[in-house]
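Please check this protein record:
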Amino acid sequence: MSTTIDPTNEMGLQSWVKSANAAGTDFPIQNLPYGRFQRAGSEEWHIGVAIGDQVLDLRAAGLISHADMHRLMAQPRQALRALRAAISEGLREGSAAELRFRVALLPQAEVRMGLPCEIGDYTDFYTSIHHATTVGKQFRPDNPLLPNYKWVPIGYHGRASSIGVSGQSFPRPLGQTRLAEAEAPSFGPCRRLDYELELGIFVGRPNAAGTRIAMADAEEHVFGLTLFNDWSARDIQAWEYQPLGPFLSKNFASTVSPWVVTLDALAPFRRAWERPPGDPAPLPYLDAPANRAAGGFDIELEVWLQIPAMQKAGSPGERLMCANYADAYWTVAQLVAHHTVNGCNLRAGDLLGTGTLSGPAPEQGGSLLELSQGGKQPITFSNGETRTWLEDGDTVILKGYCQREGARRIGFGECRGTVLPALA
C-alpha cells in the first residue's frame, strides 16, 4: 500500500511557483496530480501536473517522452514514484532545473482540460453503508439493507462513453416513467434529476484475463483518485431498474474532475479501516493486515449548488453537505480485489466509481434523494428559492480536500456540471 511518507510529502516543502505556496491552494508541491490538456489553438494532447495555478507540461520539461496517459498509468509503482520525485525536485525552491521547468509551465486558465485519459470501462460500486441505509429506508423501512451488503462490494457495469470532464453540460434526460397512481407509463423529460457525490478510482497497471489481484497487491494497480458525479434520473430509475438494474437513468451523463490525485500524494492522509462492532468480518480474499491498518482515506467531500439566480448575482453557490470518504464501508483495495477475483481483467484507464458517499448524519447525504427525503422535504437557499430535485440551469460543484495537523493541505480541484433543458 502507498502509505510511506517520503520527501515529496514534507509539510515544509516550498515551490518556486509562488501560487503553489498559497495557504488555500488545492495544488501545492506536495500534491502534483496528473491530467491531460490542450494548448490554446491546438488539438494535441499533453500530459501535465498541476502546481498552484499553473500546469507543468511533462514532455516539454523533459520528464517523459510521450503523451500517452495509458502508458504512463500502467508504469510500475517504483517508476511512478521516481517520476514524482523528479517532478518534486524540479519544482522546489532552489532547484537547478527551474529554468528548464519554467519554459514548460502554462497558466491553467489558458489551457483546455480533458478527461484524464480515454476511459475504456466503468464500474460503479455502492460503498457507503449510510447511503445504502438511508435510501433503503425509503423503500424498505423495516429492512433497509439487503442481506448481501455487508458481505460483498455491490457494483454494476456502467456506460463509459457518456463520461465527461468537469465543465460538462448535458440536456435533461428523456425516458419512461410511471406515476404511482397511473396504470401505464408515460414518456418525457425526467422530473426527479439528481447528482451523486462519488470518488473515481483510476486503474493503472492492468492484470491479465483469468488472473486475480490479491488484496496485498491491489493498490499497486491503482493510479489515483478523482472527484466523480454520477448523475441519476430517479423517476426513470424507479421504473426500469428491476430486474436488471439502472440503464437509461444512469447512462446519459457522468462527470469526472480533470486531475488525478495519486495514492503517493494521499499517503499522509491514510486511516485505519475497521468494521462497526457486531458486523461480520470480510471473507479472506477481501481482508489483509495492511488494509485494516491503513486502508481508509481521510478525504473531506463537499457538494455545492449554484442555481441560475446565484450565477446571475455572481455567487459561487451554496454548500449543501459535507462528508468524509473514511466513512465508506469498503476500501479501494477491496473494490479492486473483488472486481478481479473471478478473473476479470482490468486495463489502464478503467474507472471504478465508489458509489454515493454519504456520512452518518442526515445532513450528510450525498444526493438530493437523501437530503430532500425523496422529494418530500425541500431545501431552502439564502435567496428564498427551494429545490427538491435539480432544475434546468442548475450547476452542481463537487469539491474534495485532505488536511490534518503536520501535513500540507491538498485538494482535488472541482468537478462541475450543468443541467440544460431537455431536447425537443
Remarks:
- The first strand starts at residue 34 and ends at 38.
- The chain has two domains: 7-113, 122-420.
- The chain has a mean pLDDT of 97.
- Residues 77-91 form the longest helix (15 residues).
